Amino acid sequence: MRVLGLETTCDETAASVVRLRPDGSGEILADEVMSQIAAHAAYGGVVPEIAARAHVEVLDELIGRALEKARLKPADLDAVAAAAGPGLIGGVLVGLSAAKGIAVAADKPFLAINHLEGHALIPRLDGKLEFPYLLLLASGGHTQILAVEGVGSYVRLGATMDDAIGEAFDKTAKLLGLGYPGGPAVEAAAQTGDPGRFALPRPLLGRPTADFSLSGLKTAVRHTAMGAAPLTPQDVADLSASFQAAVVDTIEDRMRVALGLYRQRGATAKAIVIAGGVAANLAIRAALSRFAQQSGLPLVAPPVRLCTDNGAMIAWAGIERLRLGQSDPLDAPARARWPLDPKAERARNNKA
Length: 352
Ligand code: KG4
Ligand code: ZN
What we know:
This protein has helices spanning 37-41, 48-70, 89-106, 115-121, 165-175, 182-190, 215-228, 233-264, 282-294, 304-307, 312-322, 342-351; strands at residues 2-7, 12-20, 26-35, 79-85, 110-114, 133-138, 143-150, 153-159, 272-275, 299-300. The chain is of the alpha/beta class.
């Protein structure tokens, strides 16, 4: 089984071909990613209209390159998948329309993939991770803790009430003049910093729900930075390290509560898993590794290049669904919002 996957929901244009091996693992035959970071850098964040245009400009070429590297023609594929949301709607439309076009032309099944499902399932690419598992999905746009019970079956145990963790990294980087995207820059600066120099809050620490709140931490970073201005490179390093330490403590505490909540439901997670761009952070990976060990569970963290947005996760989610006999109609819509656990989303909205 070989599936082409397209990803255009944010600031990465990606096309990948993944093959399902007989042993149930996936082999990435091609994985083409073009980052738009340079196009957005001047604005300190992603500009939706620039993103959509940039996807249009490069997607065809990336698809061509991916098929060439995989030594396949569209007729050799078993299906074509695209991320249909959640994300910036202009960009989503680009990838979704391209995938539908190829599916029609080659007369292949089409799959409209939830971008978050791509992040949630890619840790299974090696064929070893079994359901159910407790997943921290943390990216620039999303932060949630999910019980992943099967393909298409997700229970949201907690989520951020304001900023996503990646967003908090990005905003901290902007404030400290470290550029965009902020995660890798803050992590690099933190390496030479003293995490104990600035006392920053650990929002919601000890609360019995597994939710996150990052905006208070962000404000505290801003006030601390203003108080210490003008910042020396050592101040920037220390503030980065202090911020990262606060995030690490928060994640550990929230995951502990989430695992407790999951166990209260009578469920047994087989692993602790981290995915999404923030999973590239080595301090966060180390903290979760400690936490998993204490909980008697393995930690599964995909390779860094599969944590940030990529096409392989869309192709793989397509394979996971296709092998269950699923596909989608050609009028599947592009969706700006698309929760993995609609029940939890509804409950939250009714509360708000
Ligand atoms: O999953 P992703 O590539 O795109 C979204 O779906 O949002 O995640 C990007 C986010 C950005 O906010 C970026 O700053 C963050 O992941 N990120 C990191 C690191 N690498 C990327 N955050 C912390 N530490 C990192 N090393
Ligand atoms: Zn993502």
